[in-house]
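From the shared-data thread, chain only:
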Amino acid sequence: MNQLSIPCHHLYPAELSSLTPVEEKLIAIGISYCLVTKFHIDPESQKPTNVNYQKLVKGHVTVFANDVVGVSRILPPSIDDVVKQIRVIWVGLNTPKPKDISRLMLVSRNCVSQALLWLKENNLLYKDIEINLEEMRQWQDAED
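Structure, as C-alpha cells:
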C-alpha cells in the first residue's frame, strides 16, 4: 500500500485497517485501475453471506505504471469525481439489492481524516499532501 513496509495484511494500523473501498480511493495518491472483490448472496435466505470488504482475493490483475508522486498533492479529491469512477459488476445468479452492498460504499469523514493524518505522519509519500478539509465538510457523513 503506497510503499508501506507492512509484512502481513492484519498488521495495518487501526487508521487504515477498516477503510471501505471508497474511503481507500479517497486517500490514495495513486489511481487504481480496478478493484476485484468476492461477494455473494445465499440462494435460500437471499441475504448477503459476506458484506465485509475482502482485501485478498485471488485472480489476475493488470497494473499500469503510475507516477504516484506526481498524481495528487491535495487529498481527498472531490467525492463526486470518485463516485463517477465506481462501477459495480455482478456475476452470479442472485443479484444483490443496493442495501446488500451499501456498507461497502459508505464514507466516514472521520475515518478518511484519521487515515490521512496517519499517512502524513508515517509515510514519506504523504508528508507534503494537503488535506482538503473543505471537501470533507461537504460530505454527509456515514455516521450522521
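The first strand starts at residue 74 and ends at 75.
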